[in-house]
Amino acid sequence: MSRYDGENSFLAKLRSTTPNYSGMISTLQTVNKPVSGIGRQGGIFDFGDDGWLTVSNATHIDPPLFWFRRLNVDNPTPYYEIRLYDKSGRLNRAVDISTRHYLALYSNSANTSRPLWTLSQIIDRQQRYDNISIREKNAEKPIQADSRNTRFDSWSSYLVNYGGKTELQFELDIVRYGDTTPDANRD
């Protein structure tokens, strides 16, 4: 039996619907100083497939897709590993927690166990789900937003699993439900 349940795994766009923190989940960050090679005095920038996860008010890029890879365990609350589904269709970055409780995308490593996540609702089909909280399976509280960083009309806030300012509620827009295993190197 496989360690993962592909039939109940899914690809989704994530958006925070929490007042004052409503926005897209990505690796966009608000920077209050010039960024090397860009020549602007700050603003909001995309740090791509490798960075800290944030919620931001950015609208200039397509929201990234996250793969919720359901673990095949007998448990009343499903556990998921969350990975970034990058523009080339690879799943080579997993959502993990830094030693200071920030959520970030980390490279895959065969010998590294990644945190498992739970959702406040059962996801069982392709549709949009509202008012979802996401928590690391051993955490007391769901994912939270840290302080807002603002520059001009842009803002972003890092996501944390402990010690944040505001617990977040999410909208999950399921774009594909079922065996979403496009990466040939999956286990």
Short description:
This protein has 187 residues and is mainly beta.
Provide an overview of this structure:
The protein has a single domain (6-177), classed as Trefoil (Acidic Fibroblast Growth Factor, subunit A), CATH 2.80.10. The protein has no helices and 16 strands. It has strands spanning 10-16, 23-26, 28-31, 43-46, 54-56, 65-70, 80-85, 93-97, 103-107, 117-119, 128-132, 134-136, 144-151, 154-160, 166-167, 170-177. Strands 1, 2, 5, 6, 7, 8, 9, 11, 13, 14, 15 and 16 form a twelve-stranded antiparallel sheet that branches. Strand 13 and strand 14 (154-160) form a beta hairpin. The radius of gyration is 16 Å and the shape is globular. The mean pLDDT is 81.
What keyword list fits this structure?
globular, two-stranded antiparallel ribbon, mainly beta, Trefoil (Acidic Fibroblast Growth Factor, subunit A), about 190 residues, about 0% helix, 12-stranded antiparallel beta sheet
Give the low-confidence spans.
Answer: none
What is the level 1 CATH name? Answer: Mainly Beta
Major sheet: 12 strands, antiparallel
CATH fold-level label: Trefoil (Acidic Fibroblast Growth Factor, subunit A)
- First CA to last CA: what distance? 12 Å
Q: Which series of helices and strands comes N to C?
A: EEEEEEEEEEEEEEEE
Task: Write down how many β-strands occur, each being a DSSP E stretch of 2 or more residues.
Answer: 16
